[in-house]
Amino acid sequence: MKRILVTGGLGFIGSHTVVELQNAGFNVVIIDDLSNTTLKVLDSITEITGKKPDFYKIDLRVKDDVKNFFENNKVDGIIHFAAFKAVGESMQKPLDYYENNLSALVYLLQEMRDRNIDNFIFSSSCTVYGQADELPITEKAPVKKAESVYGNTKQIGEEIIEDASKAHGINAIALRYFNPIGAHESIKIGELPLGVPQNLIPFVTQTAAGIRKELSVFGDDYPTSDGTAVRDYIHVVDLAKAHIAALQRLINKNNKESFEFFNVGTGTGSSVLQVIKAFEKASGKPLNYKIVGRRKGDITAAYADTTIANKELNWKTEKSLDEALASAWQWQLKQ
Ligand code: UD1
To answer: What domain range includes position 74?
Structure first.
């Protein structure tokens, strides 16, 4: 049985991916520094799958600790989620973002090189495309200069992986996520935003739950059907399954290049107002919202062309926006 290291495996996307890995028959070892999650998530994963993953609390910026982990653990592949991800914060603390998001990546790849470990999956983002000139966004769309330090860490991260994969024969896939939302159907794991949520769906569910007074809709003067910005919201379980598909592609040596990247979305764009309406339907609760000005750095519209990911990964989304929103609401009610 293959043993896979999942860094950031107690985070939102990481925890859902650990569950899917275990369901697919992989042994999992998690590294997490618990900076944006809690150890309770490990118990929740165990409740869902009936099998406790191995766990190490390690800060991946500490090179000796990374080395020590690999001295004591044999793994057949790595899925690397551990990273800071708040766009606004990344502009205030650029050096912390570069240090955390890039030094950890380099240390992991060095261990892979030194120990002949293959199979690396990287959490990237559709933010690398900026406002693409054509929609839906294919993998051929050019990478644009990053609008944020966070986005830049994803672009530079992909470049580091590409260079390392060519030089050291490490097969790697970057998954460029669109907007992950929702929670596992067991409602035992989900998104745990610290403080005031920056992303739309946690803000929506917290507003419906009465934790926030009202949702601010950032701009209704975009050139879209109803004036609000359009995104591609993907159920986190569908996204988690894309990681298993990517890992299997590498393990089975079905990859065409040593470094590949795929767009992971649903292929459908939804506006903020469409999301609000769908949420009200899924939850049966009216949402208190008001239209305010645009948020700096936001783009008009982004949704994926999933043709290549569907074909090459032999994967497609199975869950609807309504299901995703209903699960996010159930998760909120449980908090
Ligand atoms: C944001 C990041 C992106 C990152 C992703 C991670 C920015 C500019 N982009 O994407 O780089 O990869 O999160 O999940 O921060 N909205 C509101 N009111 C709110 C919150 C959001 O109207 O209170 C709107 C936004 O303007 C946007 C949509 O909802 O149109 C989605 O926003 P969000 O969930 O923050 O995701 P992105 O901005 O797409």
So the answer is: 3-184+233-265
- The rounded distance, in Å, linking the Cα atoms of 308 and 261 is 10
Question: In the chain, where do the E strands start and end?
Answer: 3-7, 27-32, 54-57, 77-80, 120-125, 172-177, 179-181, 215-218, 230-231, 233-235, 259-264, 270-271, 289-292
- CATH number at 109 reads 3.40.50.720
Q: Is residue 91 part of a domain?
A: yes
Q: Per the domain annotation, does 311 fall within a domain?
A: no
Position 60 in a domain: yes
Domain count, the chain: 1
What residue ranges line ligand 1, CB within 6 angstroms?
A: 85, 87, 125, 127, 150-151, 179, 198-200, 203, 215-218, 229, 231, 272, 295, 297-298
* pTM tops 0.85, yes or no: yes
101 token code pair: 């998001």
Residue 147 Cα: closest atom of ligand 1:
8
Q: Which of 97, 107, 129, 150 is catalytic?
A: 150
Structural domain includes residue 87: yes
Nearest CA to ligand 1 atom 13: 199
pLDDT values of the chain reduced to their tens digit, one per residue, 335 residues: 999 999 999 999 999 999 999 999 999 999 999 999 999 999 999 999 999 999 999 999 999 999 999 999 999 999 999 999 999 999 999 999 999 999 999 999 999 999 999 999 999 999 999 999 999 999 999 999 998 999 999 999 999 999 999 999 999 999 999 999 999 999 999 999 888 999 999 999 999 999 999 999 999 999 999 999 999 999 999 999 999 999 999 999 999 999 999 999 999 999 999 999 999 999 999 999 999 999 988 999 999 999 999 999 999 999 999 999 999 999 999 99
- Strands 230-231, 270-271: pairing kind: antiparallel
CB 231 within 8 A of CB 302: yes
Q: What angle do CA 111, 113, 117 make, to 5 degrees?
A: 80
- 199 Cα–ligand 1 center, Å: 5
